[in-house]
Amino acid sequence: MGQAKVAVIGGTGFEDFFKNARRMRLRTPYGMVSSIFAKTLEKKKVILLLRHGTGHSIPPHKVNYRANVCALHRTGIERILATNAVGAINQDFKTGDLVIPNDFVDFTKLRPTTFYDKAPVTHIDVSEAYCPELRKLLIENAKKLDLSVWENAVLVCTEGPRFETPAEIALFKRLACDVAGMTSFPEVVLARELQMCYASICYVSNMAAGIQRRLTASEVSKVSKQILPKMKQVLIESIRSLPDERGENCTCAHSLQDARFR
Q1: Which domain holds residue 193?
Q2: Average pLDDT, stretch 117-124?
Q3: Which of 126, 165, 191, 249 is least surrounded, with the fewest CB atoms within 10 Å of its CB?
Q4: Domain for residue 260, yes or no?
Q5: What average pLDDT does the segment 223-249 reach?
Q6: Has residue 1 got a pLDDT over 70?
């Protein structure tokens, strides 16, 4: 994989993003990762990881997030651009809009959420969990393409695979959450624990439960087919304009500084 420093974690519909890419299998202490590909894109070596496996075969609560993030780290990746489908809680958001979250709320239940289960005890600061430099780049390129993009949003991550109930969405709304999804956490925290930059570009696939009458997986799939070509273009432009080195204002590269008890 040479000097690849940026990775894209793709969800549904990203199987064709890296046509003719080289597929690999990587073993990690947390399990095997097989849905990982390498390709040169915009003259840069890029890694693509399919979060749900090929053919979208892995549900969100069964994704091996630690193995995925560990595999990317072991290949030398420094920056991760992730894609996520979300339901809109904030009724100013509309189906098909792009959202670049700046914060999250964790409502998952069963997922391993850290690499640091043993000494030294490690507490990662997530005051700015999503990399500000990557977020800025995604926002700028979405705007250049005249896409409807929300620059700030709180994403609540739920366990899945079921959709949320209207009562849960009402609760999340009171907690100032703007969108609900099932996959951004713990990816964002695991990346930060390994001092990698992470930002997410989300698309609103539906209005959340209680805002629209009924939710279906086929609706999410239909919207994804419409918006994914635009998202892919944002990602391509962002990779093209990505500086070779991380900036001085990026705290991601120093997230372990002063994080451990000794």
Answers
A1: 6-254
A2: 92
A3: 249
A4: no
A5: 88
A6: no
Confidence band for 28, pLDDT divided at 50, 70 and 90: very high
Measured distance CA(188)–CA(114) in Å, rounded: 11
How confident is residue 12, by pLDDT bands cut at 50, 70 and 90?
Answer: low
Q: Which amino acid is at 59?
A: P
Burial (CB count within 10 angstroms: exposed 0-12, middle 13-18, buried 19+), residue 256 = middle
Write down how long the chain is: 262
Query: Residue 150 pairs with which residues in a beta bridge?
Result: 99
Among 147-161, 197-211, 244-258, the range scoring the smallest mean pLDDT is 244-258
Find tokens 């997030």 and name the residue.
Answer: 65
Q: Is 168:144 a contact under the CB 8 Å cutoff?
A: no
Give a yes or no: residue 16 inside a domain.
Answer: yes
Q: 89 lies in a domain?
A: yes
- Number of Cβ atoms within 10 Å of the Cβ of 162: 11
Residue 10 in domain: yes
Domain count, the chain: 1
**How many Å apart are CA 225 and CA 222, to the nearest integer?**
5
| Cα(195)–Cα(95) distance, integer angstroms | 33
Whether omega before 166 lies within 30 degrees of 0, making that bond cis, reads no
Tokens standing for 237? Answer: 């432009």
Give the whole-angstrom CA distance, residue 132 versus residue 134.
Answer: 6
**What does the pLDDT read at residue 2?**
56
Strand boundaries in 96-246, DSSP class E: 98-99, 103-107, 149-150, 154-158, 179-181, 197-207
Rg, the chain, Cα only: 17
Domain CATH number, residue 17: 3.40.50.1580
Asked whether residue 134 carries a pLDDT value surpassing 80, the answer given is yes
